[in-house]
Design a protein that fits this description.
The complex is a heterotrimer of chains A (287), B (815) and C (163).
Chain A (H helix, E strand, L loop, with lengths): L5 E3 L4 H9 L3 E4 L5 H6 L7 E4 L9 E4 L2 E5 L4 H6 L1 H6 L1 H7 L5 H4 L4 H7 L7 H6 L3 E6 L2 E6 H4 E3 L2 E2 L6 E7 L6 E7 L10 E8 L4 E7 L6 E2 L3 H7 L3 H15 L10 H19 L11
Parallel strand pairs in A: 1-3, 2-3
Antiparallel strand pairs in A: 4-5, 5-10, 6-7, 6-10, 8-9, 11-12, 12-13, 13-14
Helix pairs in contact in A: 10-11, 11-12
Chain B lengths: L18 H5 L15 E7 L5 E7 L1 H5 L3 E6 L6 E2 L6 E2 L5 E2 L5 E7 L2 H9 L2 E6 L6 H4 L29 E9 L2 H7 L2 E9 L11 E7 L3 E6 L4 H12 L6 E5 L15 H10 L5 E4 L2 H6 L6 E10 L5 E13 L5 H10 L9 E10 L13 H19 L3 H6 L22 H11 L8 H8 L3 E12 L8 E8 L5 E4 L9 H13 L6 E2 L4 E2 L14 H28 L6 E4 L2 E4 L2 E7 H4 L1 E4 L5 E5 L1 E7 L20 E12 L5 E11 L6 H21 L29 E7 L21 H13 L10 H16 L26
Parallel strand pairs in B: 1-14, 12-13, 16-17, 20-21, 30-31
Antiparallel strand pairs in B: 1-7, 2-6, 2-8, 3-7, 4-5, 9-17, 10-15, 11-12, 11-14, 13-22, 15-16, 18-29, 19-20, 19-28, 23-24, 24-25, 26-27, 29-30
Helix pairs in contact in B: 10-18, 14-15, 17-18
Chain C lengths: L6 E8 L2 E8 L4 H8 L18 E4 L2 E4 L12 E3 L12 H8 L9 H14 L5 H7 L11 H11 L7
Parallel strand pairs in C: 1-5
Antiparallel strand pairs in C: 1-2, 3-4, 3-5
Helix pairs in contact in C: 2-5
The chains are: A alpha+beta (287), B alpha+beta (815), C alpha+beta (163).
The structure holds flavin-adenine dinucleotide and FE2/S2 (inorganic) cluster (FES) (2 copies).
One FE2/S2 (inorganic) cluster sits at the interface of chains C and B.
Amino acid sequence: MIRPFKYSKPRFLREALEALEKENTRALAGGSDLLVEMREGKSQPEHIVDVKAIPELSCFSIGKDGITIGGQLSLNELADSKELGQTCPILGDAVRTVATPQVRNRATLVGNLCTASPAADMAPPLFVLNAAVVVASKAGEQRIPIQRFFQGPKKNCLTPGQLVLRVEIPPCSSGRGVFMKKSRVQGHDLATINVAGWANPQDGSLRICIGACGPTPVLLTGSDELYQRAVSRDELLDGLAMLAQDQIAPIDDLRASAAYRRHLVTVFLGRMVRILFPEEGGTSRAS
Amino acid sequence: MSTDQEYRYIGKGISRLDGLEKVTGSAQFVHDMAFPGMLYGKTVKSPHACARIVSIDISEAEKMPGVCAVLVGRELPYKVGIYMIDKDILAKGVARYQGEPVVAVAARSELAAEEACAKVKIVWEELPAVLDPREGLALAAPLVHPELASYSYMKGVFQPQPGTNISHHQKIRKGDAEKAIDQAEIVWKTQFYNPPVQHVAMETHTCIAHALPGSQARIWTSAQSPFTVRNLFSACFGIPHQNIRVHVPYVGGGFGGKAGIHLEPLAYLLSHKAGGRPVKLTMTREEEFGTIPSRQGLYSQFTTGATRDGKIVSLIATYIWDAGAYADYGVNVGRAASYSGAGPYEVPNCRIDSLVVYTNKVFGTAYRGFGHLEVLWGIERNMDIGARQLGLDPVEFRRRNVLRPGAKTITGETISEHTGRVDLCLEKVAEEIGWSGIQTEEERAQARDSGKLRGKGVALLHKAPAMPVFTSSAALLKFNENGSVDLLTSITDYGQGTYTALAQCAAEELKMPIERIHVPWESDTALTPFDWQTVASRGAFMGCKAVMAAARDALQQIKETAAQILRAPVGELVCRDEAVFVAHRPEERLSYREVVMGYSYANGNSIGGPVIGRGHYIAQGLTHLDLETGQGLPALDWTYGAHGVEIEVDLETGEITVLNLATALDVGQVLNAQSLRGQIIGGVVQGLGSALLEEFRFSPQGRLLNAGFVDYKIPTSKDLPRKMSQHMILTEQLDGPYGARGAAEHPMISIPGAIGNALCDALGIDFFELPLNAERVWLGIQRQRSVLQNTLPRAIMLPQAIKLPQTVHLDRGGG
Amino acid sequence: MLHEIPLYTISVEVNERTYTEKVPAQMTLLQFLRERLCLTGAKEGCGVGECGACTVLLNGKAVDACLVLAVEADQASVRTVEGEARDGELTLLQRAFIEHGAVQCGFCTSGMLLSAQSLLEKNPHPDQEEIVEAISGNLCRCTGYVQILEAIEAVALGREEGG
Ligand SMILES: Cc1cc2nc3c(=O)[nH]c(=O)nc-3n(C[C@H](O)[C@H](O)[C@H](O)COP(=O)(O)OP(=O)(O)OC[C@H]3O[C@@H](n4cnc5c(N)ncnc54)[C@H](O)[C@@H]3O)c2cc1C
Ligand code: FES
Ligand code: FES
């Protein structure tokens, strides 16, 4: 049972920010994490600030200078956007693996990030897309790179009085992305592991992020150099696998053993690289 | 074989009678019910697998707003149990599993009850727990029930072993199994494991109890067997049966988990203590997993002997059941699974020891298949392993050993032509999956390069209802003024479609349209006639038999009245199209409506009276099993079947995709084609859950870690085989209704075996433990790689994890 | 802990009737429908968004009513299974569920119907994959889903007759 609390649904950002300064106060977006935590007694806020009436969180734009997704946008609104699907298919691919149709009608992208689960399915694509989280407080707005936003298992970098307004994704027209998730069933399940990759042949960058294999999603360091150096796809793959095994720190839990996760990471890196670079031997940046 | 043409309703795909109420949301489940003044119950549960209750302080809880009653175990001098009376209503002295209710609260709202529970203070002293039944058998093991000797139990059927953790030891002895093994040309040994799993009915257990003045009780409960609830309730409290009224409205799934008595006594005691206000006690999904009984785990071990040409000569099997903290139906699962415990094969020499062992875990109960899914996982894998030892095709090996007319089962029953044809089921599924023999290593090596391996497998199954020898059903057919009929039964239709089948049967027998047969969707022990329990795939079988008898009785009454009016002997009358007439003068007819409430002559004289057909059926010819040898006649009807599957395995991740799954069952006769198909598909998919996904996971301290859907996954619409097909074999059951047999549990049995065999065909690796989830399959592949690298001869790998204790003291004490 | 439980006035349209009620913040939409309005068609199978037994349409979209607060539904329109049939006339989908044997115990049925209904309203002719996806958040332990999928498909293909 959810314990009693006070509810407000401010229509002005200022009001919300003030409310959020109070102790034991939580923002409510789609509620698919927060209400579950409350029902299970894992958190017991006294105040809930519903963010769904604040105009600053309703933005959704896709343009030359990037993509902006406000804190009210539900996952299904993203999945249903044809424009987003064309501009940045990796996001839609990830969205469709999250939870159930009913949950996706409520759950937000921002809420997914704020919960900061190491297995959050929306995190890896945003990591590889170099997204930033725009945070407001009474002191003003702040742009936080997504990597810094994730601090530890279920721990983000927000302090009381802060609210995420939106996520900003830099232009992503030159590049190709892949998202993959392995879970225990075909139906809804949290990720055993998830991986996202983004290759940009123009600037020679390759970004890879692995979820559910450490306290936060792991953005591989050193993948760019590998990409630039590797003479064959196999070489790239071997190199990435080694990087990944070095940098991830999976644990044993109900969903999988650490050993299986390590194995899956190698498998899925392989599958991902084969999609990113469909031609044998060709990691060619010119393609 | 009967032909469908003879029947107007039997065998047809009549849509469910309850469909309308269910699609409009108007069907009322106990989940939906509330009464004026009703309170809500909640419980405080043990956080430990085994711990002594040092003290309980409820003083703060009692003071919480809205609280009307707080109960602790020491106030309650009662014990409950169906076969073994071993369970306190709230833990007393010690708690025997994590999740066991210790304190209960009734309050004006669920929230108030929960908040009061949070204020209860309990001091615990943790005790050593028995978490593995094999360790529970050791002489030095702690005893889960040191008082076992003092418990009452069903004598002549069960054999608890005081001074041990064994709540029942079932023995089957046929021929001389040891000697036959010694003399067998080929002998092989295997062992297997099934984890405990949950039923996961979508409606969790819930009930409302109302303690009324004068030791009266009224209970509304989501249960399968209203009369069993009443009977056990009466036994528990010493309240006479007629003072207890149990109502069962719509039930949101049961699968065996609601067969017995669960929350009703506690809800009643809370109501009593709260001054007689009705109390509703509903399990959350977490409690459904952690507090309500589940399907018990099983360790099984086989030694099989065969001749070189593939005839089984002997089977020695040991079944060790992880029964959890209380016996419930578990003891009977251990019994019933043993008499099917050699599979549908002719085994001339057989020794089975089935040990139901108490452990400090959530306890076991009936679950669709009643132990058969568990034992047949091992038996059917053992058959494929044996075939390999013999160099035989697994289908051929089965062909040479299946039970055929003239064969004797392991309990001494002779199979007749009408018992059912497992051989035909086998041939059917083999054909459906295009069986062409086990793949060779070369074939596998070729496939391996593609990363995805395919494999095929078959598995057979059989099951008879597990029930007492005196099991009975009754039915009433009550005519209404307009000549329509109310069919009264206390069988519970919690989704199987039994009521629709009974209505079909009544319409068929009474020669009237099914639209005019009404089955009220509530059993009420005060108003509907006795029925033992709705379990064991016996509902349609025995219910139809009772309805047929009731219809005969009703027609006789109609004819007796009509005979006077038509001035013809009863023997000359026929009933058809809702009318009764003289056989050779159909124009002299009376409609049922004219007769069923009595008939008035022109001058006002009246005869006859309201027609109420009454019928019953009691299981015929069953005997108790001999305690020492297990010999006897336990089975009302045997339903045989087979599954054939084709799977694809992702070599890199271990993930299994089921491409094709064919099921054949010898159902004797189809009563309702649509519900039969629904039962089969539903059962198969549930079987896939057991085969691929489902298991309870415990911490080393015995805490259940996955009590919820986040980490206990059941199949969704995305987890179905690419193709499924269902095939009926129709070998008439002579005493079955229209020749039919039970078929509700069978579809899920042997799904794991079929998948395991297909997996072995694909990979050349034996798996011994369920579920066959991706990680387990991957681990198997890893292990085999290391075996191959060390170029060890490829023998059967006995996984380290499932060693049986060296000394199993089978014949210790009692007996 | 709060000493006084604050109440909030909400105005919700449910099956085309507007209800104005005072509710505590912790009350879920599911509790509101079942306990306040006695619309018990939506069920609780888990309370945490995993099973879909509580599925209702909120402003036309399928949601788990157990994960929506009643206060969040202020000014919204809600459809429950009770509002689907009009004047005793079943919807095509309801009829197809009965005819195809898509119902066993019936506990998942209202949620299934609404998930399927929301799909068909958005996309009247979905393919099989879309149908499977639409009900993937609704657990059913009885049917094995096949007959449910067949019922929805029959409506999607126009095989279920109107009128
Ligand atoms: C059945 C089920 C299945 C699920 N499956 C998946 C899955 O497969 N993959 C996956 O990644 N997740 C899954 N989830 C988790 C969940 O759906 C997602 O994390 C979701 O995106 C959270 O978004 P929300 O809007 O519902 O967040 P809420 O629950 O509203 O909020 C989540 C957290 O973020 C905070 N918050 C919300 N908005 C803001 C803001 N603007 N500023 C600051 N803080 C804020 C809240 O206070 C809260 O702590 C599942 C959940 C359920 C119930
Ligand atoms: S009760 Fe809402 S999803 Fe299960
Ligand atoms: S019909 Fe019983 S859960 Fe779906």
